[in-house]
Amino acid sequence: MARPLRIGLLGLGPVGMAVAKAIQDKDKVLERRIGAPLELRRVWTRTRGLPRSVDDSLLCYDVEEILSDPEIDLVVELLPGEHPAYEYVKRALLAGKHVVTGNKEVMAKHGPEILSLAAEKHVDISFEASVGGGIPVIGPFKLDLLANEIHRVRAIINGTTNFILTQMASHGSSFEDALAEAQALGYAEADPSKDVDGIDAMFKLTILGSLAFHMRVSPDDVYHEGISALAPADFRYARELGYAIKLLAIGEAEDGGVVLRVHPTLLRETEMLAKVDGVFNAVAVEGDLVGPILFYGRGAGGGPTSSAVVADIIDLAQRSLAGTAWVAPPAFEDTYSIRSMDDVRTGYYLRLLAYDRPGVFAQITRVLGEAEISIASVIQKENVVDGQPPVEYAEVVLMTHRTREATMQGAVRAIAALPSVFKIGSLIRVEE
Amino acid sequence: MARPLRIGLLGLGPVGMAVAKAIQDKDKVLERRIGAPLELRRVWTRTRGLPRSVDDSLLCYDVEEILSDPEIDLVVELLPGEHPAYEYVKRALLAGKHVVTGNKEVMAKHGPEILSLAAEKHVDISFEASVGGGIPVIGPFKLDLLANEIHRVRAIINGTTNFILTQMASHGSSFEDALAEAQALGYAEADPSKDVDGIDAMFKLTILGSLAFHMRVSPDDVYHEGISALAPADFRYARELGYAIKLLAIGEAEDGGVVLRVHPTLLRETEMLAKVDGVFNAVAVEGDLVGPILFYGRGAGGGPTSSAVVADIIDLAQRSLAGTAWVAPPAFEDTYSIRSMDDVRTGYYLRLLAYDRPGVFAQITRVLGEAEISIASVIQKENVVDGQPPVEYAEVVLMTHRTREATMQGAVRAIAALPSVFKIGSLIRVEE
What we know:
The structure is a homodimer of 432-residue chains.
Chain A: E1 5-10, H1 14-25, H2 27-34, E2 38-44, E3 59-60, H3 64-67, E4 74-77, H4 85-94, E5 98-101, H5 104-120, E6 125-126, H6 138-144, E7 150-156, H7 159-171, H8 175-184, H9 193-196, H10 199-213, E8 222-224, H11 232-240, E9 243-254, E10 257-268, E11 280-287, E12 291-298, H12 302-321, E13 337-338, E14 345-355, H13 360-370, E15 375-386, E16 391-400, E17 403-404, H14 405-416, E18 421-431
Parallel strand pairs in A: 1-2, 1-4, 2-3, 4-5, 5-6, 8-10, 10-13, 10-18
Antiparallel strand pairs in A: 7-9, 7-11, 9-10, 11-12, 14-16, 14-17, 14-18, 15-16
Helix pairs in contact in A: 1-12, 4-5, 5-10, 7-8, 13-14
């Protein structure tokens, strides 16, 4: 019998608890599938006295009992946020321990440094759980799709916002009401900003973009925009036009450049991604050989995320057993550079309120015409009452053909300055 | 520089051509990603003189030039059907060569024998391309989902039949017309029986079932039924009831037993699987940790299938480089036994033509009631003209709640024998 892989676990939140439980409850089946037992040797948590499914004798409150224990082979890091997770991951690697982490913020901000530190120490770092919960996402990029040049990645990788958008689309809820419901159900945190502002998705796209395009990506390279400005009217109009609204994380490669962006997006109802509802996640990838492909499942929660963490542990244990826990990571390729959001070419949905005067529509179309932006479709509704004191406006919704982001932003500023325009309601990018 | 992995390719159909092209055109990028070059050393084909994208000097017409060449490390087998592919795969393994195959029939019929032969010779056998084209399907079962107990697999794994069913659903086509269109587009073969009778899906489910439930499965263990008996009326009624009709390959584990079955299935329109249209494939899996998960993409064609074949080659090349090309395969677990189709419990859709006599519905419901089968919903349409000479009938459609297959089959025989019933139109299982 091979000797056990000895695991130190950092963090006992819902995912940490689920991982500890899986390692303990499934010990026999995992041992059979791996060929060696897993030993959960020590679990570090900051908060004492909570009810735990982990035996008291395994708990410790001094992280040195894990990081400085020479008998621990593998540190599983499941802490929230950047600190002290980043420092602990580095210390574990420096001590020659393998690391499995589910920490998207650490991997997004420090991925290249951590990968090169692991390579230097000839230890392994795995992070399947950092994006898409239990959906195999990292693995496919690292192996299954490796024969492909990836043109595009489009992903719904934040369950909280997808739940909110689904509620807004199906029940006509306001953003505030849908958010409150998400909070009541435990899908959103008390401070929901990381989710609703697109920051969580930005971290995850940093990781996906790096893998898909074989390049160094920092969160600063990713444009991000949240969902809090969306109104129930946008969902009604989108449906009328045959679209769903999703918070998409998009990475696209074109002419040697890659643009990475997170923002609300109109997506044709017939696309598989448009059908991903509630807290579910999906990652759609287009490769030169494989064509379009999509992975779908639960992107968060103890069970799904523990599925990914334990898969990483199994992989490491199997490779340890074969004597090759460490494999030289592929180098970054210098095929692409990061391109500015200004250069994105996409369609746009524009909703605005105008004083109901003859000629307003001519003025708007003249601005767009001068910018060489062509209109794909128009909806004009009367009798919208808005403002304080209430005034009656005409609501104008139009969709443009593909145009350059900077051009469109300039045109929208010019439209907002028209005397006949009361205000811009929404500007949402459209994926065709 | 590490020495190249030397590849002998068997078969130059669309997939073989795409694999040869990828290895040759992507040589630099693959070498960088692997850490060693791939060398396409010899390509065997039976048919001379066809236009090839492969250099003439690589072609051979005597298979011994590959199977008996001690310098070839890896045989990539991409031949159609069972013979001579099975014999060649065995010979390659016996000669100590690794094998990558896309051959579902060989793996379904001889998988356990081939896996144990590979283990005995300490060489590797990979078969990602045998199910779902370029969609990573085998990989997830072998690693990413390995921490899970799988409860259920439901898959659309035959693009030809999914195309035909999509045409029937969206254009009201007859089976014959939709098949003719599939043939005209090159999606169906001149002899379409392996696809439309469910045999191709049966082979693929044999492979998936074996991986999902960690057991030996033979094609004889898989119940299969094709799509040729479906009528346009079934698609109309299904839609009226809120369902799509798909040819599903289903594996379910319950109470120590596994049932594997391929048949047309009514699936709620709101399910992701119901939205998989045209030639696309999808595999939905439910695991105890991960919950529901789905993989979607093109299940056939040179490009997608070559993506999977080359991924298998990359994996092998990387492990060769690390000195661990061969890893002991996990043993079959004896958790489950194969259970008979008779014991399946599912819902049923029954369409029948009845002489429009008072009392016919009462007779039908009495038969069902005596068998303790409860009815979930009923549609009764008048004025259907059928038979020779034409007679006017009432078309009765009903859906039952879950009941045992054998019970339902008995009830349907009794209903068919009722004097007021002209004929049974369709009996289709329903997934809830």
